[in-house]
Amino acid sequence: MAAFKPGKIAFVSSDAKAAKTARNKLEKLYDHVPPEKADVIIALGGDGTMLKTLHQFMDRSVPIYGMNRGSVGFLMNEFSEKGLLERLEMARPSLIHPLRMNARTVSGEQIEAIAINEVSLLREGRQTAKIKISVDGIMRLEELMCDGILVATPAGSSAYNLSAHGPIIPLDAGVLALTPISAFRPRRWRGALLPQTAEVTFEVIEAEKRPVSATADFTEVRDAAEIRVREDRSIKLTLLFDPGHNLEERIINEQFMP
Description:
By secondary structure, the chain is an alpha+beta fold.
């Protein structure tokens, strides 16, 4: 992709002291506008701040350039007060598509949400969850006994998915990760890689006896009975990265980390 051409800049930050201090300094150094009028938004914080900013301005499809003032910062660039305009001009865009979750609860309530990283199912109580898994209408696993299971995007494959021993996926691989969380039966089932066009349906077995929650980034659905997950290609989110440190390169590097 061609280099990004910055226009009007806005700054947002987390509530962390380091992030707010950085924002105050940058707003004194650079002309800026409210986020609603910006051509590019500078997000200051950690990966949680980046996800929150992407969700908040999803309807505008405005590019987001993050600078790390948080903990992990996998989706962020290094922080510096100097040369911001030049860095923006040289930044390379990474395009990602989120997941769309449609969940039905035990009581019949229908809830829809968007996930940039993953949609995860987790048992709510002491008993193991039992989940039936179908892909594109074909039943693939009649009963998975587990603590949970998740579907991760390539961009989110190095987050919770990696912690659950799922595969790291390059951005252009065209697949989604289906990863169990502490699977008991089938004991040796390690998950699957699915085409990005796949729709995954989870049916919670004995949903009232073995309650399961479904979470799409910031949206949690308690007592879920059925959850459908697919990639929403109509939503295009743009992250900006310094040359040589784009998201694709970070995902590759992560696979060689000790």
